[in-house]
Amino acid sequence: IRGEPVYDPKTFSSPNYPLQYLSKQDCIRVIRATKGFEIHVIFRNYFQIEKTYDRRGVFNENHIDCPNDYLELRDGPYGFSPLIGRYCGNSLPREDIRATSGYMWIRFHSDDALQYGGFTANYEFRLAYHNEHPNVGGCHFDLSHGFDGEIETTSALETVNEDSSLRESECVWKIQVPSNLRVWLNIDRFTLGEPNRCASNFLEIYTGNTFDKPVKRLCGASAASIFTSHHTLFLRLFTLNSTIRRDTFISANYSAYARHKNCSQFSLYSCGDENCIPHQLVCNSRINCPYQRDEAFCEREKTWMVKFFHLSYFP
After folding, report:
1. pLDDT at position 129
2. How would you classify the pairing of strands 168-176 and 136-144?
3. d(C-alpha 294, C-alpha 60), whole Å
4. Are residues 118 and 262 in the same domain?
5. How many Å apart are CA 312 and CA 305, to the nearest integer?
6. End of a domain among 64, 99, 129?
7. Is the sign of the CA dihedral 303, 309, 312, 314 positive or negative?
């Protein structure tokens, strides 16, 4: 969606505007307000997005689903944030459109059929009134541009619990490795405050984006590792209250990997099971191969070196 980076006047519009938008478009943008402000969106002049059909095959611009082409707005920075509205047709959306979280997630989608004139909109930041905000806390972590790393929830949840007014909380970790690789997530410990009560606490795993359904939703007493098919991963941890947060502990490590029969052909290290990892991850004191081959060899080498120097030492 046009309008990025943010300059005054604050506007965004459909791709190719003022010309017709193209087919098969999927554009996402996130607006972030200054702390203490909320985001208001105003459609002033023009709005034309393909209407939707009802069951009789008749156009119905008031259909709330808008399954063909649409503009979708959410109150938060992700595709799973609370829905503000999904808009299509020829009527200007309602005047009072706002995001109170300090973020607005915007998605424009068009299918492969009809194209129309699109839209343009202005947005502004207005001072928020604290009594209008829900008691929902959150934290966001961006773990990008590395080959591996570790995640541990204690410090994040303790920070959220410092605000006694908060009830629900949602912490999100974005993991991203180089685009020619994928993400392997290995969960070491998984303890939820109220296991098997999915409405109270859960960990969701998304790959690639956050507007599709999660590839996994974990809310039981255990969790297994997952090999994803994408280089970007989102972890979403939801907890209903501070008591649950105090009893929740999750630790995991993630690693970049690829699937090849011949790892050396791609200048990668072979884990022995058609999983390949970058050579930088070998002997780094973290498990990056499913069967620990990347670290097991290092232990043998260290033992051999110790014996060698011991036998070679003459006082």
Report:
1. 76
2. parallel
3. 59
4. no
5. 10
6. 129
7. negative
176: exposed, middle or buried (Cβ count in 10 Å: 0-12, 13-18, 19+): middle
3-state helix, strand, coil in the chain (%, to 5): 15, 40, 45
102 and 210 assigned to the same domain: no
Nearest to 148 by CA among 168, 177, 179: 177
Q: Per-block average pLDDT, block size 10, for the chain (315 residues)?
A: 49 93 94 92 91 57 74 95 94 88 95 91 87 65 92 90 83 96 96 96 96 95 93 96 94 96 96 94 92 82 40 39
Closest CA to 32 of 132, 81, 130, 99: 99
Pick the last residue of a domain from 85, 112, 129. 129
Do 102 and 179 have their domain in common? no
Contact 96/122 with Cβ under 8 angstroms? Answer: no
- What lies within 8 Å, CB to CB, of 262 at 6+ separation is none
Q: How many domains does the chain have?
A: 2
Both tokens assigned to 294:
């990347």
CA distance 144 to 246: 28
What DSSP letter does each residue of 24-58 carry, written as one string?
Answer: S-EEEEEEEPPTTEEEEEE--S-EEB--EE-TTS-
The amino acid present at 153, given as its one-letter code, is: T
Name the residue with tokens 């773990």: 143
Residues 180, 86: one domain? Answer: no
Q: Could you list the residue range(s) of the whole structural domain that residue 98 is in? A: 11-129
CATH code: domain of residue 100: 2.60.120.290
Yes or no: say if 294 and 281 are a contact pair by the CB < 8 Å rule: yes
